[in-house]
Structures are given as C-alpha cells and as structure tokens.
Amino acid sequence: MAKRINRRQGSRPQQVKRWWKRLAILAAIVAISYGIFLVLGLFSRPGYAVADLGRGPIEEQHCTPRFNSSPPTSGCHSQSKVAYGVHDEPIPAELQVHNLEHGAVIIQYRPSGIIGVGDALAQDLDAFVNRLRNSNLRYCRLIAAPHAFPFSFPNRPEEETSPKVIALTAWGRIDVLDTYDEARIKKFIDAFINQGPESSQLPQNECQ
C-alpha cells in the first residue's frame, strides 16, 4: 500500500508539468491567432498608407508645406481650417491637412466641366456627404470638394495606369477610385472618420 501511495504522489509533478505544457501551448496558439488577426486587420484596412510627414502650423514652425501625395494626407499646415460639408471650389492643400489632423475624411473629385455645375459625379458625392452628415453627428467631419490636379501618391504605379476621378483622404491614408462606388467610399469613411492625431470629442459648434 505504501508503495502505491508513493507512486501516486510521485506522479503529481508529472501531471502538473503536463498541465503547464498544455497551458503554454494554448497561450502560444492564442498569441499567434491574435497576431494573425492584427496583421489581417492592418492589411484589410481600406486604401493605402502614406508616410507621415509630421504636423504643425506653418505660422509657428516657419515650415514650407511639402506633400508626398496629391491630395495630401499629412504635413505642415495652416492654422486655419475649412468648414466641413460640401464645397464648390478646390481646397488649398495646407487647409486640407489641418482638417485631416482633426479627424476629417475628405472626398475630392476631378470635375468633368464647370465646377459644381452639370457634373453628375459632384451631385452624387454632394448628396451622399449631406445624407451622412444629416444622419449622425459621427459624420460631422466629412468634406466633399473638387480637386484641381491629378491624383498621385508614392509607390503605387499601378494606380496611375487608368484615370482616377475620386480621391479619399484621411490622416496618413489615401484611396483613389475610377468610378463612383458608394460602398467603397463608406467603408473608407467608417474606418478613418474622427481618427486624426488631434481628434477629440466633437465640440458643440463643430458642425454649425
């Protein structure tokens, strides 16, 4: 009987060791799965990442605005901002960047004729932006405007092989479309609206 008890007692360290080994394997599986989830989430985000050029007011830092994409997604900017909502004229780049810094998503398009007049694309985008902004305060920081220059951003030569008519920008992020695709635009907006480096709780007068 004594020997049997000793064997049982001697088996406990082995059992504990096996349980720790199983827990270690389970922890490793969870960690790997979480890592895969993060990687897939990163690469499944809409649009393309653009290198962050930093931020700061031109007037305070005496910097010259230089941008690595058109429209811009970061960099030196004006202390002023533009009103959120629909615009009929192109917005200067240094103003765009300040709005992006505060969490804006800007939708810009290449007008087909006179800006804002008889342009079906402009009408579609303007209506879409107004509809979203009226539906939920979350979409307050949306902007739609024409863009005066061709769209461009680094390291994506395939995007230059066909003409693009819409550009979507958020801080450090851009996407370009060759046609109006409301679902794709909405996905970009939902991913990046209010995500700028100086985003904060919306002040009461932000959308007034």
Shape: elongated
The helix count comes to 5
Q: First CA to last CA: what distance?
A: 86 Å
Secondary-structure-based class equals alpha/beta
Secondary structure tally: strands = 8
Which regions have little confidence, pLDDT < 50, spanning 5+ residues? 33-42, 114-118
| Strand content bin | 5-15%
Whole-number count of domains:
2
- CATH C-level name of the largest domain: Alpha Beta
Identify the notable features of this structure and list them briefly.
alpha/beta, 2 domains, Glutaredoxin, 5 helices, two-stranded parallel sheet, 6-stranded mixed sheet, 208 residues, 39% helix
Descriptive account of the structure:
With 208 residues, this protein is an alpha/beta fold. It contains five helices and eight strands, in the order H-E-E-H-E-E-H-E-H-E-E-E-H. The protein folds into two domains: 44 residues; 144 residues, Glutaredoxin (3-Layer(aba) Sandwich). The strands form two sheets. Strands 1-8-7-5-6-4 form a six-stranded mixed β-sheet. The protein is elongated and about 80 Å long.
Summed up, what is this model?
This protein is α/β, with parallel strands linked by helices and 208 residues long. Helices cover 39% and strands 14% of the residues.
